[in-house]
Amino acid sequence: GAYVLQVKATDADDPTYGNSARVVYSILQGQPYFSIDPKTGVIRTALPNMDREVKEQYQVLIQAKDMGGQLGGLAGTTTVNITLTDVNDNPPRFPKSIFHLKVPESSHVGSAIGRIRAVDPDFGKNAEIEYNIVPGDGGNLFDITTDENTQEGVIKLKKPLDFETKKAYTFKVEASNLHLDHRFHSVGPFKDTATVKINVLDTDEPPVFSKPTYTMEVYEDTPVGTIIGAVTAQDLDAGSSSVRYFIDWKNDVDSYFTIDATEGTIATNELLDRESTAQYNFSIIASKVSNPLLTSKVNVIINVLDVNEFPPEISVPYETSVCENAKPGQVIQTVTAADKDLSPAGQRFSFRLSAEASNKPNFTVHDYRNNTAGIETRRNGYSRRQQELYFLPVVIEDSSYPVQSSTNTMTIRVCRCDSDGTILSCNVEAIFLPVGLSTGALIAILLCIVILLVIVVLYVALRRQKKKDTLMTSKEDIRDNVIHYDDEGGGEEDTQAFDIGALRNPKVIEDNKIRRDIKPDSLRFPRQRPPVEDNTDIRDFINQRLQENDVDPTAPPYDSLATYAYEGNGSVAESLSSIDSLTTEADQDYDYLSDWGPRFKILADMFGEEESYNPDKVT
């Protein structure tokens, strides 16, 4: 009787004329699921609890027929498609009451170890299922979530499994609908429960250490081979294989210790020094004898304990000062002590003067008994003129066993201070300096003096250089300037860049046998220049100077005028200059080439008589 919808038919006949316009409704197809009111056309459900999971869509054929007229009853039909809408009226159900799973003990935490599924005949969100583990045996080790795509329950591992500890687990899982319809609460509880049994499978596992980390202690300078501790690992599998130990070598520090491969005992391999390394950190690996590939690792920390082997010393500063106007009992410095050893809790240092300094009336040491001491004056004033420095031996002892002590010498400098005790100067030289002239002012004055000296030295050097150049250019007369002019072209640099031996006068070279391209080692002979008359020809003057330079072994090798004057002289070919050449090639006479020897034979054949030259014979 649930309302579905209402249909309505219209008749074009006159409603006032008989029953021609009166319409009656009926169902031709769709029974017994639906019924229709013949007068109003209202369609209702005809059966209770229609199940969408059984049939979802229905086609209902409706007929509308008038009640009379001359032509009899006329009818019209229409089809109504009815789709059932799903409601959450079915609880989820497990297809079986017990699920069996087999899980290896080596499964990782968080991994999925199995799936179970409950069936809900509803559709869409009405079929969404939520899975929960009933509190009990497996609540701490396992978890379950819902796969949104398949609506399956995915069982995951929360903690590692151990076959040797427990081989099986049993717990219950509950499946329930997420979206409930209050109209169907009376149908029953919309949930179901199933039992899950998990059997743990044994796998070959690596050895297990008895501790996650091992910490050991050893005194420094312990003899080599001393056992300082041991590690233990066991094979928890059913076979219970033996275990072997070895150190995971990573650097040279690991060589300070050794381990017994069978017992796992750790011993020193070298002498240890806490001041060098206070702690060692390395790893030890345990492997199964039956399967060496199965290994486990543990971290070992070894702390080196201190042995009192170093005496305490005064911390910086080792030098202090005292004013000339100091009063007796005035504390001029507070000292503390430092010990290279690892000071234990409650370590105490004591301070005192050495025996030889106790009788001197200059300074004393006051031990405050809190690991500090004060250096106090014992005199009424000090004089820098009499003694600038005092050396105070201070003895410091520690409270460890065995007791270590040291004597530390403090340097005390006497300084000039003002009435408030502010130090003005601590240097002896400052005694003789004017009062009020600070060190910064002295440094500034010295810098100014140095700068003035540098300027004076540079000025004098420039003056000497200028004067030297003037003398060099003026010491020769006007005729000597011609020789200077002939030196044009680079001077000594040209002799270093090129070999000018070919330009030397052969006659002069043969006569003197002295190299002109380097400076001779012989002493310089004084030049004796004869007086030159005023009416002497300039050529004679040049030849005279030329001969002097050729004979002088100390003359520079860049006298280009002297060598160029004799260019070509003494050569078999005489001058090769084109100045005296004939105007045309036809006027040339090359017969003289035959007289030059075998080196010029080819040229003689080429420029001599044409019939005497045969290019095919030239090689």
Automatic annotation (TrEMBL):
Q: Source organism's superkingdom?
A: Eukaryota
Gene Ontology cellular component list:
adherens junction; catenin complex
- Pfam families the record matches: CADH_Y-type_LIR, Cadherin
Question: Which residue ranges traverse the bilayer?
Answer: 431-462
Localisation: Cell membrane
Alphabetically sorted, this entry's keywords are:
Calcium, Cell adhesion, Cell membrane, Cleavage on pair of basic residues, Glycoprotein, Membrane, Metal-binding, Repeat, Signal, Transmembrane, Transmembrane helix
In its UniProt record, a GO molecular function of this protein is: cadherin binding
Q: How does it sit in the membrane?
A: Single-pass type I membrane protein
| Ranges of residues in domain Cadherin | 1-94, 95-209, 210-314, 314-432
Where does the protein principally reside?
Answer: membrane
Q: Quick one: a GO biological-process term for this protein?
A: adherens junction organization
Q: Which InterPro entries match?
A: Cadherin, Cadherin-like_dom, Cadherin-like_sf, Cadherin_CS, Cadherin_Y-type_LIR, Catenin-bd_sf
Read off the PANTHER family from this record.
Answer: CADHERIN-12, CADHERIN-23
What is the purpose of this protein? Answer: Cadherins are calcium-dependent cell adhesion proteins. They preferentially interact with themselves in a homophilic manner in connecting cells; cadherins may thus contribute to the sorting of heterogeneous cell types.
This protein's name:
CAD12 protein
